[in-house]
Amino acid sequence: MTKSSPEPTKTPPRSSPEVAYESTPISSPRSLKQLSIFFLGASLFLVSTSVTRRAIHRRHLRNIPKLFEANTNPHEHFSPTADAIQALNLATMNVVSLGVMAIGGTLWAFDISGLSEMQRALRSRLGYQGFDASPSNVNSNRERTLEISILEKRKEAESSKKA
Fold first, then answer.
1. Is residue 108 domain-resident?
2. How far is residue 119's CA from residue 30's CA, in Å, rounded to a whole number?
3. Per the structure, how many domains does the chain have?
4. What is the pLDDT of residues 119-149, one digit of tens each?
5. Nearest to residue 42, comparing CAs of 126, 86, 103?
6. CA–CA separation, 50 and 48 (whole Å)
7. Is 90 in the same domain as 142?
8. Key word Plastid present in the record (predicted)?
9. 73-102: pLDDT as tens digits
10. Do 101 and 33 fall within a single domain?
11. Which of 14, 55, 111, 133 has its CA 20 to 30 A from that of 5?
12. Is it the case that residue 14 has pLDDT exceeding 80?
């Protein structure tokens, strides 16, 4: 009995692995531009939060009576209009800064770098590719679809006659 040595099998040359999803690296200028919008919103949110905290603290200090001062009228500097305007300004500042931060994060997450890219992505997702097409393209597309529908109806009519 002779042992036979296994024959070496030839392996095909390896090809480069296919990438399922190719994204831009985080250090690319495109990604840094997108992240800068997010960080702008985050810094605005920090500033607006600190301004809001400072305004609340000043209002609280204003209501505390000073030493050896009568506390029979603690709300001496009360102005409903000024308080309402200040509250509206602070709330608007907080919401706008949070919105900028959310929009910047969303644009970075979906890899959208500008308004034109966002329009293209949204229109392709909703199926509005020909929404702003020129009238000549729209007319030629209508004519083509009309021809196709007429030909399909003729084929259906012929097949129903044969059957």
1. yes
2. 17
3. 2
4. 888 888 887 766 565 666 666 677 788 788 8
5. 103
6. 5
7. no
8. no
9. 666 667 889 889 999 999 999 999 999 999
10. yes
11. 14
12. no
